[in-house]
Every structure is written in structure tokens, then in C-alpha cells.
Amino acid sequence: MRNQLKALLAEGKVALGGQLRFGSPAIAELFGLAGYDWILIDTEHAPQTPPGVMAQLQGVGCTPATALVRVAKNDPDLIKLYLDMGAAGIVAPFVNTPEEAKAGVDACRYPPLGTRGWGPDRAAGYGLRSQEYTASSDREVMFVPIIESAEAIENIEGILGTEGVDSCIVGPVDLSISLGTPFDYQSGHFQQALDAVLAAARQTAKPAGVGVYGSVFEAGLATELVERGFRLILAGGDEWILGSGCRLVLDQLQKLRS
Q1: Domain residue limits at 21
Q2: Would the N or C end of the chain have less CB density within 10 A of its end CB?
Q3: What is the pTM of this model?
């Protein structure tokens, strides 16, 4: 097993990702073929099923992209399930303390480094590459907490400093709500929180990530975030791109209805 996303970040490069909620393996494959570096399959905010996630992982597997799964909660059983299916990493919501980060890391790794139970399925080629996968998975599998609360910002150095945490992703909407400035991404509180994440990333020598909280059809904000130091960039997804695309087409054709 070799994690292309992990290698890209280790080189200090920017990695562009898309988040998928519709559960379509064809869409997952399309995003990978389009050139996204990583695909985040969201099981937290969408009615995804394990067979559906498996099909999307297979779709992404036909492309150069790296597939991560966003679990509904930082739960060892969910983490084990999706890693055994072949996810290259886990993205966990509302990780607010170093202890919670450590629990997620442990769930991603086999003893003696962690607590993951052995039984890789598709991840190990359905048993054809069991030894190869077992020998490399602890090194290659990623654990990425989502930073989306004021408490997480207070503990960001400890979270990113936890051994086995590979990066983090700022969840802008929940973070802005937790800071008392819902959807106000220009507020001083929100911008100071971003600075705190970047400072912790520099301190721990780990790449920081963020969800683009503006239009993904304009490169301005994403460029600004990268220039500030973010490297793991979540830029759009199936809901956002399809919805925005529909509006764009209809806005252009609205005059035909008059």
C-alpha cells in the first residue's frame, strides 16, 4: 500500500480534494479522472451505506486519486470498517482534544501501535495481499481530524502534535458557529482561529487543511488560503458543483422564459 496523498503532502505540495455525498461510484470515478488529488466520501452528512461506500472506493480506485472516508463520528468500529474496505485514510468530525485525536489514531493502527482489529477485506486485495497490506498500513493510513469548534482551536497544538495525526481540516461553517459568528468568515474571531491552526501546523511540521468557504469557481479565496500556508484544500464536491452549475445555466437562460 502506498498513499499518494500522504506522499504529496510530505513534499509540501498542495492537494486538492472534493467531497462526495450522492453515493454514486460513477461520480467518484469522474472526480478522480477529472484530476482531484483526493476524494472525501462523506458518511457524516449524507445517507451513505457501507456497500455504497465500497462501490465509490472502487470507482476512485480506477483513478490516480486517493480516497478518504469522513466518518459520522470518531468511532473505532466505523474507522475499522472503512479502512478494511480500502480507504487510504479517515477524516473524523469534532475532534476537540488530543485525547480524542489519540483515540482516532489508535483505531487506524494495528497493535502494538494501536487498537485496530485485523481483518482487511478489499484493502488487502480480498486476501491476496494480506501480508503486504499489514506491513505497510500503519505507515500509510492517514488520520485527519476536522477542526470545527472553539475548543478544538484552544487545543490545536496538542491535536496536531499527537503522533499519528497526519493533518487537519478546518470545518469553516461549524467553526464559525462555535465562535459565535455564524457564516461570517471575515470576522476577527474566525480569522484568528485560522491563524492559530497555521501556527500549530508550523510548530508541529504538519500540513494544515481547510474547506474552501467561498465559490470554488473562482480561484481567489483558495489561492489566498494556500498563500497563507494551507496545503490540504477541500474544494467543492458533487452537491456544490452540481447545484452551482444548475444555477449558472439557468441564470444564463432565464431570459428565454420572458
Answers
A1: 4-257
A2: C
A3: 0.95
